[in-house]
Structures are given as C-alpha cells and as structure tokens.
Specification:
Blueprint lengths: L1 H22 L3 E6 L2 E6 H50 L7
Antiparallel strand pairs: 1-2
Amino acid sequence: MKRIFLFVVLFLVALLGLSFALMNADPVGLSYYFGSIQAPLSLVVVLALALGAGLGVLASLGMLVNQKRELARLRRSEKMAATEVKNLRSLTLKDAR
C-alpha cells in the first residue's frame, strides 16, 4: 500500500513538472560571464533550483564533517571511560586498619 501511494505521489509530481514545462516553454535569454544562450524558461528555473540545492548540500558538508569528527571523539572518550569504570569495579577494596 505504501509503495502504491508513493508511486501515485511521484506520478503526480512528474505530471505537475511536465505541465509546468509545457506552460513555460517560451525561450528566455540567459546571460553569463562567458556569453549568453536562449533556453526555455522552465529549463532555466529547474537548473537554478538544482544549482541552489547543490550549493546548499556543499555548504552543509562542512558541518557534517565536523559533527562526524566530534562523534568519533566522543565515542572514543566514552569507550575509555567505560573501560576505566570496569577496571575500577574489578579492584578489591582493602581495609586501612
């Protein structure tokens, strides 16, 4: 049931995308540093969206790497603390008489 629902949702999204592309098929001029091109408006919008998403992912990679490094450090620290607690529990107590 979940797969059918997912398929229907993806199909509707694809239909919306197709209708968006058909309604915005007029060519627009796209100027960039090295020249300019004529492209359909829908293609320009989709490429801008994809470029923005890609840049967002690249921007978040730095934080992700830092979090992974911090997690590894904390896991090592926790393992050392657990080993120390285990060693302390295995020691016998001596009376100071």
